Amino acid sequence: MQPQSPKYEQIAKEIRKRIREGVYQPKTAMPDQNTLAEEFGVSRMTIKKALDGLTMEGLIYTRRGDGTYVLGDIPLKIDTNSPAEEHMGLTAELGHERVTSQVIKFAIMFPTEELMTHLKLQKNEPVFDIIRLRLVNDEPYVLEHTYMPQKLMPDLNEKILLHSIYSYLKDDLGLKLSGAYRKIHADLSNDLDIRYLNCQPGDPILEVEQVAWLQDGTPFEYSFSRNRYNARSYTVLDISQPTV
Amino acid sequence: MQPQSPKYEQIAKEIRKRIREGVYQPKTAMPDQNTLAEEFGVSRMTIKKALDGLTMEGLIYTRRGDGTYVLGDIPLKIDTNSPAEEHMGLTAELGHERVTSQVIKFAIMFPTEELMTHLKLQKNEPVFDIIRLRLVNDEPYVLEHTYMPQKLMPDLNEKILLHSIYSYLKDDLGLKLSGAYRKIHADLSNDLDIRYLNCQPGDPILEVEQVAWLQDGTPFEYSFSRNRYNARSYTVLDISQPTV
DNA sequence: TATTTTTATATGTATATACTTATATCATGA
DNA sequence: TCATGATATAAGTATATACATATAAAAATA
To answer: Which residue from A101, B57, B172, B192 lies 20 to 30 Å from B10 (Cα-Cα)?
Structure first.
């Protein structure tokens, strides 16, 4: 019977709903914090904490001395594009399309110098070397080359690769993913791209190079996702917090 | 003599410095909140607010019941790549290199359907139509095609374009920039690219399409930045806040 | 009328305090 | 030895309160 999430989160959820349903309209002011505090039966500090979260999401903005205003029509979804996050990313993004995977390579090796740097490993700590082709409605969509430290996921196998690395890490191993650092380039197609992505020699490729890490800072994935230039774009939402 | 920034921000700044200088080492625990509160002579709530900010920046992470740990070695700079933010972005990024601009087009027009949508304008509200070539040490670097509503910046002129749109908007007009939504694609070079970026027909181009807006949600820029595929990559840091 | 000053209002910051909950450590017992 | 349970610890949540400060609206003044 105890509340699963803190009050400020429940309140944020309710306010998000009101914005979505038009109770609070874009470009108009919301009730002030004291009024909301009274309505929800909490202190103003708790309301403020809820509003702070919504501000960071870009749903509202506040002006000291004035009030709180609804924005509400900014696109909010970020396109994650992480091999390990396919169930949040690709699957969610494509909705009802049929996403399948094909494992092209599943090997284990000692890390190169570069991998040792990116994944913070010693030279005697093996990494998985995985290449997967992801298809949408049987059409080649993205070619993913992924390296992951074996020690973090000793029991990784081909069956998991076909399903979801993400839910394996999160649900089975209890690892908490935290963030990613991505570098996006344009490149020319190479032999693998031509073979698996059905593209021509000389075609441009959109490559996303990524290091992803856990909540404690451990890197768990170094990957390259290669997309046909006309098949996909990469989307980023950057809300810069006001610099003090 | 009054403090220009709030205490929690000053404390965050000091802790950032300590991490940078190695007083608090990566992978080790920091002093607990009560100790820090005592040291800085503030309440624990104030310390917590400072730590919350550092957590969002990805510098530290906290575990309830355990403590606060330093991460500290995650690359933090985001490559903004916004025409209007060149003084935070391009200039800052390239440090001591000499960045110059060349105005290729500076016109005014009524918006197309697409511009009306992206910039939330009526068909009788004119937009500036700007093409700039940016050079680093006299080498072509990026070709920027920018559209901005005239009503937000009636006095924009060619001299400003050569200097900094960003500081004009921020310092002269007092507008507060808030965020941007970007879409990144790979593309094939077109005539303009070939002419100004010194590239060959068939070369891949990294294009960043962007809508940027002010704190109140008003879009003020719709732009395309086109980069030679081997000249530049686009970098993103994505710290996902723990989902509740 | 136009400008300046005052006042009311709403958000921001900061504190002290109490309680909750996740984690690690240490003691206990099978 | 290994699992279980108590205990200490540290961060998280929430409140009440006071004051600071930015903004808008109203009142006073030239």
So the answer is: B172
Residue range A89-100: average pLDDT?
60
Who among residues 44-73 of B has its Cβ near strand C, under 7 Å? Answer: 44-46, 49, 63-66
CA–C1' gap, B2 and C6, in angstroms: 24
DSSP designation for B30? P
Mean pLDDT of B74-79: 46
Dihedral sign of CA atoms A151, A153, A156, A161 in order: negative
A67 touches B: beta carbon within 8 Å = no
Q: What's the confidence (pLDDT) of residue B90?
A: 53
The partner residue sitting opposite B204, judged by closest CB among A71, A177, A229, is: A229
Q: Is A75 on the interface with B (CB under 8 A)?
A: yes
* Partner A contacted by B239 (CB < 8 A): yes
| Any A CB within 8 A of B215 CB | yes
Virtual torsion, Cα B52, B56, B58, B62, nearest 10 deg: 40
Band (pLDDT 50/70/90 cuts) for residue A209 is: confident
Question: Which protein residue's Cα is closest to nucleotide D11 at C1'?
Answer: B64
| Chain B residues lying within 8 Å of A217, measured CB to CB | 26-27, 61, 69, 71, 73-74
Whether any strand D atom is under 7 angstroms from the Cβ of A8: the reply reads yes
Given a contact cutoff of 8 angstroms between Cβ atoms, the answer to whether A227 and A205 are in contact is yes
pLDDT on residue A139:
86
B174 touches B146 (CB < 8 A): no
Task: Enumerate the β-bridge partners of residue B109.
Answer: B127
Residue A210 contacts B, CB cutoff 8 Å: no
- Kindly indicate the confidence band of residue B84, based on its pLDDT and cuts at 50, 70 and 90: low
Of A49-53, A188-192, B48-52, B172-176, minimum mean pLDDT range: B172-176
Using the structure, give the distance in angstroms from the CA atom of A174 to the C1' atom of D3, rounded to a whole number.
22
Confidence at residue B2, expressed as pLDDT on a 0 to 100 scale: 42
